Amino acid sequence: MMDYGAIPLKRLIEQFERMPGIGRKTAQRLAFYVLGLPVEEAKGIADAILDACEHIRKCSVCCNLTENELCVICGNPSRDRSQICVVEDAQDLLAIEKTREYKGVYHVLHGAISPLDGVGPEQLTVKELLARIQTGEVKEVILATNSDVEGETTAMYIAKLLSPLGLSVSRLAYGLPVGSDLQYADEVTLSRAIEGRRSML
């Protein structure tokens, strides 16, 4: 491994490398890009990161990311609250919103069950989802977790928890490639997946 000597550069590369999907070479490229910026632009990036970390929090209802008590979807009275679409993260929510097909509300799990990574149901917002369903307002839960092993495991786990409650529980009809993430799917594919969702109970 190449040693750049300058400790601040080394630390910057290491911080980029900690990000998901960023390998050593990409981390180096990003670090050198940042070093090539005027100091004011670099400060702007740093300030934006700090501002987001300090002010973004979880919606008190659906756990989506927001800077207010409620996210824009939960705060919209025209959304159908009888229908909850369960997604792994906020990026998946945005992908579904782009289709303009779905009129219900969401629940963001902030991950998927993955025993190998030490992630169990207690690390997700499953408890908050169940609390929402206890209100009696919800008629259908759409499980829109990813179509990989972790997403399928999470969907099956939640479906089992919901089975005694007499709800309609459906899964997106995956015209999506198996193993792919929702955020990378195009709007047409996602629209078809929402329309063709299948019952899980």
Description:
By secondary structure, this protein is an alpha/beta fold. It has two domains: 7-55, Helicase, Ruva Protein, domain 3 (Orthogonal Bundle); 58-199, Dna Topoisomerase Vi A Subunit, Chain: A, domain 2, CATH 3.40.1360. It contains seven helices and seven strands; from the N terminus they run H-H-H-E-E-E-H-E-H-E-H-E-H-E. The protein has helices at 7-17, 24-35, 39-55, 90-99, 126-133, 149-162, 187-195; strands at residues 57-58, 65-66, 80-87, 104-108, 140-143, 168-171, 198-199. It has a five-stranded mixed sheet with strand order 4-3-5-6-7. A two-stranded antiparallel sheet has the order 1-2. Helix 6 links the parallel strand 5 and strand 6 (168-171). The protein is elongated. The relative contact order is 0.10. The mean pLDDT is 89.
Mass-distribution shape: elongated
* Separation, N- and C-terminal Cα atoms: 52 Å
Q: What is the structural class?
A: alpha/beta
CATH architecture of the largest domain: 3-Layer(aba) Sandwich
Looking at the structure, the CATH topology of the largest domain is: Dna Topoisomerase Vi A Subunit, Chain: A, domain 2
Uncertain residue ranges: none
> Taking strands numbered 1, 2, ... along the chain, how are they ordered across the largest sheet?
4-3-5-6-7
Give the averaged pLDDT, no decimals: 89
The portion of residues assigned to helices is 40-55%
Strand content: 5-15%
Beta strand count: 7
Total of DSSP H or I helical runs spanning 4+ residues? 7
**SSE succession:** HHHEEEHEHEHEHE
Please report the first level of CATH classification, the CATH class of the largest domain: Alpha Beta
Number of domains: 2
Radius of gyration: 20 Å
